[in-house]
Specification:
mainly beta
């Protein structure tokens, strides 16, 4: 059986517990992981730092591992670094599943390979660098609460006799001890007190508060643990310290974390006493959160969608090979299924030559080139940006979503159910689209967002009372709230009209050329294209005006080049391009900007001209500026003068004219650096 995972950047996990599957991974036997690894070590995570790779494609986290034992490989250092996908750099975030996700102070056995990620420019440490051998299966985690070790498929109740011995037998040698380490042991003498909670059903990642009642918690805050939805509850995850709202000896209030799943809950006090629940908490649905430290400790933040493509939401593009495969039909069926339920504004654009999942402005749908970790069916990556809205609060929005699928698996692309050895592609996409909606995993095999999927099984429906409700909650805030100056997602999508948009744009950029700006774009193909419309804005958000229209080529499969020369450019100008086809479909492309260094202020032709009692002066200033003006008659006499305060950006300043009689005048506007002279006429 295989499992499917998502990156949150989001990753996708389905499974049936009887098949021991999580996260839509294919189980990699322990001996295979051992033989595929260049190093096998026991250690603990003692530090973490994140950075962009040298190509600025993805964020990686370097996890510093303190080494206790070396089972195999040339590891002589007391510390190493293990690179995992995802993390936060500044106010940009990437969360990857099914890549290995490690937390501080976690201990266990790591199966590692030599690092192949291009990160030279970001290295600040001298420790040896490795990558996980098999994604989430590259780490066997020690559970100090139960005294066991766990990976996504197996549980080792005796670490020394089961795990150590199995590794030593396969590598043919005993481990080398680097530092002393105390294995987790279960303290059978600790008395456990049961707790109750309310409500009994709740959502995860939505800031809903669970109240836990009991006694003996102590006056000082400890930890609250939930079942881990990403592995079907095989392990527990702890609520963040900032998610614990209040703590007394008898009552705790805690926000339910985004990756919490249905199952028992327990409290661990500062004396290491465990207080488990007698019953299971039901998680109805889960929303993906971004974890970020605004300066007071790591907090969980909800995210939302925006009008990313300028036409309402997000435009996905098939890589050429994917577009030519049988995968397109089930992908589009799953997309239309979600759209019909949630009205999410996602469209399919023309094909792309981009063949990489990266933060590059292209929402690509593709089959991988063997870069997905071993055993992973598919991966969804969501990229985020954020902005501070208070001392300790940040708004986050989705900037890009990429889909990767492993082409080596035996896929079922048909409407008919999959065969016993097949994986149902539409089912997988339906789950992945849930992650694109910003939904997390649940532990409920009747739902599409269940953490795991088995071969020979399909699940092509959405539950209206759980996952649809959760997705609509995210959609509602995405369409009604503007965050970080971004336009909200638009509503009123025609889901039945999800179709390829008219143009494959391979280049849209600009350059300075003397006193002008040259805007150029190039298309690889055009389908039923009527025209290309170029607009200019002072801030890249609103105030767009059409400055050029160029006819399309109707139908073309050849490279076509377009150019427009802006002869009256602004000091800072934003340009966007929109393509219209003959059927009324539009495709809005990315926004570019050009900043000039030759001036900071531009004054445009005053209007109206002739004027009566006032004249409007259009202007653009990079920063707030004071300018002087003189209104001079034809014999050189100044009839009115003064100072104007021009705000930043593009504006229309209205100048009242008081004492000048009807006639011809010269309006001189000037600063220490700029001077403009216009002839104007006052009407009788």
């Amino acid at each position: 059986m295989k499992r499917l995972c998502v990156v949150v950047f989001a990753t996708l996990f389905f499974a049936f517990p009887s098949l021991k599957a999580q996260c839509l991974l294919q189980e990699i036997p322990l001996e295979n992981r051992i033989n595929s690894s260049t190093a096998i070590v026991e250690g603990k995570v003692i530090a973490k730092r994140s950075f962009w790779d040298d190509d600025h494609h993805n964020i990686f986290t370097a996890n510093t591992i303190e080494i206790y034992k070396v089972f195999n490989g040339e590891v002589v250092s007391e510390e190493i670094e293990v690179l995992t996908r995802g993390g936060i750099v500044g106010l940009e975030a990437q969360v990857d599943h099914p890549s290995l996700q490690l937390s501080l102070h976690e201990s266990g056995v790591f199966f590692l390979q030599e690092n192949k990620v291009n990160t030279k420019a970001n290295r600040t440490e001298s420790s040896p660098v490795f990558q996980p051998t098999a994604g989430p299966q590259a780490f066997v985690k020690y559970d100090f609460l139960t005294g066991t070790a766990n990976d996504p498929f197996a549980k080792y109740t005796n670490i020394e006799q089961e795990l150590y011995r199995a590794i030593e037998k396969e590598v043919g040698q005993s481990y080398q001890e680097i530092a002393k380490f105390k294995l987790p042991k279960v303290d059978q003498g600790v008395e456990k007190t049961l707790v109750s909670f309310s409500p009994t059903s709740i959502t995860a990642g939505k800031k809903e508060v669970l109240t836990i009642n009991g006694f003996g918690f102590g006056a000082t805050q400890g930890d609250v643990f939930f079942k881990n939805a990403d592995d079907g509850g095989a392990t527990f995850i702890a609520a963040l310290a900032t998610e614990i709202i209040s703590w007394t000896d008898t009552e705790i209030q805690v926000e339910v974390p985004s990756d919490a799943g249905t199952g028992t809950v327990f409290v661990l006090d500062l004396n290491s006493n465990s207080h488990p629940s007698a019953s299971a908490l039901t998680i109805i649905y889960a929303e993906t959160n971004v974890l970020f430290d605004p300066g007071i400790g790591t907090k969980s933040f909800q995210s939302q969608h925006i009008n990313d493509d300028g036409v309402g939401g997000y435009t996905f593009r098939y890589f050429t090979d994917f577009a030519a495969s049988s995968a397109v039909a089930p992908f589009q069926r799953a997309l239309e299924n979600w759209c019909n339920e949630t009205n999410i504004n996602i469209s399919i654009g023309t094909n792309t030559s981009v063949d990489v999942a990266a933060s590059d402005g292209t929402n690509v749908v593709r089959f991988d080139n063997n870069e997905l970790p071993s055993g992973i069916l598919g991966q969804t990556t969501s990229y985020y940006s954020g902005c501070f809205v208070g001392p300790n609060d940040v708004d986050w929005f989705v900037t890009e979503i990429d889909f990767d699928f492993n082409e080596d698996f035996n896929w079922n692309f048909e409407l008919d159910p999959p065969g016993p050895s097949q994986y149902d592609f539409e089912t997988v996409v339906l789950h992945e689209m849930g992650h694109a909606h910003q939904l997390g995993h649940v532990i409920n095999n009747s739902l599409a967002m269940h953490y795991s999927l088995s071969n020979g099984t399909m699940h092509r429906t959405l539950d209206p009372t759980t996952e649809v409700v959760g997705a609509i909650d995210i959609y509602n805030r995405s369409t009604t709230t503007s965050v970080c100056g971004q336009p909200p997602m638009l509503t009123n999508v025609n889901c039945a009209a999800l179709a390829v948009l008219p143009v494959e744009l391979i280049r849209f950029d600009g350059r300075l050329a003397g006193k002008t700006n040259v805007i150029e774009w190039e298309t690889a193909s055009e389908i039923n294209v009527f025209e290309h419309v170029l607009e200019r804005s002072p801030n890249g958000i609103d105030g767009y005006e059409v400055i050029a229209r160029q006819p399309g080529s109707a139908f073309s499969s050849e490279l076509l080049n377009y150019q427009y020369i802006d002869r009256n450019p602004w000091p800072l100008g934003y340009y966007r391009l929109t393509t219209y086809d003959f059927d009324g479909k539009t495709e809005r492309h990315k926004v570019i900007s050009l900043k000039r260094n030759d001036n900071h202020l531009v004054i445009y032709e005053p209007n109206p001209n002739p004027f009566s009692d006032r004249i409007t002066i259009p202007n653009f200033s990079i920063e707030p500026t004071f300018i002087q003006y003189n209104l001079v008659n034809q014999i050189g006499q100044t009839v009115q003068s003064g100072q104007l305060e021009l705000p930043q950006g593009y504006n229309h300043y209205e100048l009242p004219i008081d004492a000048a009689p009807a006639g011809v005048y010269y309006l001189n506007l000037f600063t220490d650096l700029d001077s403009y002279l216009f002839q104007v006429v006052r009407e009788r």
